[in-house]
Amino acid sequence: MKKYPFKKNIKGTLALKACPLALIFAIVFTIVFGNTALGQSYEDIPQLQGIQSYKALYDNISFTDTKNHWGEDSINRASALSITRGLGEKRFNPNGTISREEAIAIIIRLMGMESDAQLLGQSMIDNRDTGGAKILQTGDYWGDGYIRLASNLGIITPDEKRVIETLTERERTTLEDNLSNRMSAYEDNESYTAAQINNIRNQLRTKLEKSYTWKKPVSREQVAVWVARAEGLVPITGTAQQMIYNLKDWNDIKTENLPLIEGILQKGLMKGTDQGRFLPKDSLTRAQMTTIIDNLHIGGLERQGYNIKTGIVDRIDKSTQSMDGATNLRTVFLVKNDDGTFSALIAQESNKEENSRGFIAYKDRKLGFPSAISEKDYIRYYINPQGEVVLVETLSNTSIEVEGYLQDINHSKDTITIKDYYDRSHSFKIASGANVTVNGLYAKLEDLLYGQELTLKIANGNVVYIDGYIDTGEEGYIHPGERIVIGKVLYIDRQNGKITLLEDNKQGEYVIDSFTPVIKNNSNVGINSIREGDLIRLEFDEYNGSMPIKAYIAYPDRQLANLYKAQIVGYNPTRNEIILEKLSYYDNTQWKNSSQDTKLPLSSDSSIYINGRNISKELLKSYLGREAYIATNDNFGKEEAMKVVFKTGYENKYYNSIQEIAFGEGKLKVDYNEMYFDESTIIIKDGRLIHPYNLKTDDNVFVISHGTGTHTASLISIEGISVDTGLVVYRGRIDDIMQYGLELYGIDIIEGTEKYTTRRKTFNISEDTKIIDTRDDEVLEVTVEAFTNSRFLKDRYRWDEENYIREYAYAVAYGDMVLAIDIIDRDKEGQVISGANIKDIDRMDEIITLKDIRDWNDFRESWNINRAEINLDVSEAIFIKNGRPATLNDIRTSDSLYIIRRNDFGYIVICR
């Protein structure tokens, strides 16, 4: 709960009327005498200089294409430590696929053996006479050095090297054709001798061969195995091999690689997708590879001889020195380390470049220079084997804040316990040197009072900062954030910026305008990121009113990993796991059998129900042998059961809209069948568990019920499609075209499970807007200029093919800006809107195989389940991902799609 640290009274003096005398004395004592460590001279503690090349390093890693990318933190950190590198011209290309050679080079750099690899590569230089033609460059030889060294170290096996370097007949034919074409320029040059031509041909063949072998994209499985060997992970076999079987596609992994990948999963270096797949044959992007390496970077650097420390910047001193014509601005950062020691990090700016030294600072997701670091920043800093500071990163963004009321401080164990605003208790270890403030003034642990309101900053599991609050304001004054409302989101009206919350079984409506910060994971994400079922905390600066000053999405969404139906035949309380037989899993409204029995851990807060009654884990043994429905989640790569519902009686299935719902009676009607729902009912929307109050009349649902006589819903799956991209698909008649826009008339808006009509709307068009014409069987790409010039033809006959006035179209818009337009023939449209997941991508033939398909039904105004798999031809499609035009190469099998299609041909494909 954010409070003002202090408040001035009418005379301008500090009001501390609620503070006890001992606290006032402690505050004054702390201010006057300060930290005793500050009395030390810097000569008494280690002085660590920065590096001379920090400005050049900053220029090399200031990438223009990684801002706001999900992998930005890992990319910036790994690049600042020279583990990964950009592509030049300030580009990193985070979404580009990474080659086998690049992956090996990054692994070798992390091992600190780049110099060895480069020297090995230089020893392999082909010095044969090529008449001055530069075929093989330094980078080619260095690449060979990385591969040779990795082979020597056993990271790459001889069999893997043989498979990679063996070309198919088609590849060899294509290579020879390319070689012949490339050689013609040299063979026509009479200045080359026959021997030189032969040497050029051999080097050119070597270079081209690599494009078919080591320059090809690396697979997830291959990277996992190489990383495991580089890390020296012991292959895990037998009963210890558990996590691999949580993956639906573990059978797609080579048998000999399973033990190493089990080790990778257990170490948390890689994990499966939200759909429970490892996707072993999929390629990796540069950002994904960097994230894997980022998980390893501390251990890898320490093995190289790096010293990595964490601590709080206690003081910053600056001084200016002049000598030998140089003016040096010296900055000393006094750091109180978590181990109780002190360090002085030294940076120096000078008008003589050779005198300047510094480090890369990474703060608030921004790269910068030492001046970005402030007092009281909690930092991690990296000291290279030469004793120089290379990188300083603040941990405030990666730390968490816990707020609540003080319950206990155990001084002997250095622990603190608080109760949060959800009435849950938390205990934390207090880091050595943790700062304590009350109302913004320094204090000591002994001055904190039982029941006092506190904010704890936690980093690496330890409390590094305690901010206490005692109300000193006048009666009737409300501080911003003093009024708090906490509830679950029932409904979201994004058009009008309103949300409806359920608080203590009462509903309340609140306004979230475009200026209201909506905070999730320390980032302002806006109202579009709020989803039904989220637990929201609203802060107000007035006692009444419906407009908060800030909204927090209180904790991460609880995602559903899988839904099983199985017979529970055993319970191991020691391991906290249930043993399942006759297992089947839920897939697109169907139960699909699995031949494998499994052991499944229970989550720490799992719920178990029998006949609608919540029972303890200890009673599980009383119900062994019975069938149950089990909802699981992914807990950092480990699948756990979060809800277990024992089945009673017969199972029935229904798929239709909710006709009636009575929350007070816990009853609903679907397809003219009445059934009950209660706390035991598993309710799913968008792959996550939600509250029963999120159900609405007319929701399209798939229901599984069980019982004899009266039936209770064990599963309610809301089958609507949520775009969740901020994009809206409009369909209407083009009534007017302007120079930079268009007007649609009689618009249908398809958003989520709702379809509603508005009369007229004007949109903007940019040069980046993609436009296609699908009125005939042949898809035509239309330039923005040709489309906007159509406004001059508005008085012409409609049959003029270049006249788009009065034609119907789909328009994909973000706000008022149109990203894509599909011009259609209203009379023979035959196009449908579908939501689907991806089973496979054939990039060569430009085919996406779709599964879990939902088709929008105009007549019923609902989503229909389509159990078929569709091979969608996307050769003429417009792709949109992350709100921007994209290509098929940007699409991943883990993406979900929102598609405008006609039969098996996709016209607009939106990643969501």
Helix fraction?
A: 10-25%
Number of domains: 8
- Mean pLDDT across residues: 81
Poorly predicted runs are: 1-40, 473-478, 751-756
The main β sheet shows up as:
8 strands, mixed
Count of runs of 4 or more consecutive helical residues: 13
Instruction: Count the E strands.
Output: 49
Structural class: alpha+beta
- Give the neighbour order of strands across the main sheet: 1-4-3-2-7-8-5-6
Q: Tell me the distance between the termini.
A: 34 Å
What global shape is seen? globular
DSSP strand (E) fraction? 35-45%
Rg over CA atoms, rounded to whole Å, is 32 Å
Domain SLH: 58-121, 244-307
InterPro entries: SLH_dom (IPR001119)
Keywords: Repeat
Organism: Proteiniborus ethanoligenes
Describe the protein's architecture and organization.
By secondary structure, this protein is α+β, with helices and mostly antiparallel strands. Helix content is about 15%, strand content about 40%. The chain contains 13 helices and 49 strands. The strands form seven sheets. Strands 1-4-3-2-7-8-5-6 form an eight-stranded mixed beta sheet. Helix 4 (about 100-110) crosses helix 6, helix 4 (about 100-110) runs parallel beside helix 12 (about 285-305) and helix 5 packs across helix 6. It is globular.
Summary keywords:
globular; 912 residues; 40% strand; 13 helices; 8 domains; 49 strands
